Amino acid sequence: MKIIIDTEENLAKRAAQRYVELIKNKPNAVLGGATGSTPLGLYAELARLCKAGEISFKDVRTFNLDEYVGLDGSHDQSYRYFMNHNLFEHIDIDINNTRVPSGIDTAAAAEYDKEIEAAGGIDLQLLGIGVDGHIGFDEPGTPWDSVTHVVELEQNTREVNSRFFNSIDEVPTHAVTMGIKTIMNARSIILMAIGSSKAEIVKKFIQGPVTTDVPASILQLHPFVEVYLDEKAAALL
Ligand code: PGA
């Protein structure tokens, strides 16, 4: 695992350069997308670079990690909506080449890994991390061999995410998420964590045992993971 510690602004710039390099070498790269607060700086930087002509997503395909069950893409808290508004509308990607698991047709989850495989597999998967160690919506206890599936969200995850909804009652109880195996199949991975609320879990997943109690700890066994941290998230390392 390679650890990169820098300011939030520089992390976004440095991570964006990884995308520039990747797409320069492979214009039809397959990217794994993530939502949440953490990737917003990176997405803004990718949009800026695309407008400046330094990167093109014309032939890129994307697969997002997860989606809330029950929200369709027009719901402003759906992850499809998030991706459209925070990235896809600001870059030159063909929207037909972007995939987010369906929160409505949950049976389609069974096909998601096959679709990723048919696209050639994910070249670079972006991840955030939950304070409980989740990646995607793979909560503690998720088996290592899991593929894309429907999960019940932990109460704590719903509470953390309720900041985006009017009340916790509106936060969906279930989600569709790539499994741990789906994520580990990516050829390379960038995990970003920002802020002091992530410091404890960052220490655990990097320096603690590999255990399903801390889903992100499996990344210790992946051959190409870069972890981008600000000083606060890295404080306990
Ligand atoms: P965040 O979410 O980027 O909003 O902190 C990360 C996650 O829950 O995976």
What does this protein look like?
The protein has 237 residues and is α/β, with parallel strands linked by helices. It has one domain: Rossmann fold (3-Layer(aba) Sandwich), CATH 3.40.50. 29% of the residues lie in helices and 17% in strands. The chain has 7 helices and 10 strands. The strands form 2 sheets. A 7-stranded parallel sheet has the order 1-10-9-6-2-3-5, with helices on one face. Strand 2, helix 2 and strand 3 form a beta-alpha-beta unit. The radius of gyration is 16 Å and the shape is globular. Residues 36-38, 128-130, 134 line the site of 2-phosphoglycolic acid (PGA).
List the helices and strands and how they pair.
Layout (H helix, E strand, L loop, with lengths): L1 E4 L2 H18 L4 E4 L6 H12 L9 E4 L1 E3 L10 H8 L11 E2 L9 H10 L5 E4 L21 E4 L2 H7 L12 E4 L2 H5 L3 E6 L5 H9 L17 E5 L8
Parallel strand pairs: 1-10, 2-3, 2-6, 3-5, 6-9, 9-10
Antiparallel strand pairs: 4-8, 7-8
Bound molecules: 2-phosphoglycolic acid (PGA).
Radius of gyration: 16 Å
CATH top level class name: Alpha Beta
The biggest sheet, with number of strands, parallel, antiparallel or mixed sense and barrel status, is: 7 strands, parallel
Flag low-confidence runs.
Answer: none
Oligomer designation:
single chain
Broad shape: globular
Give the number of domains: 1
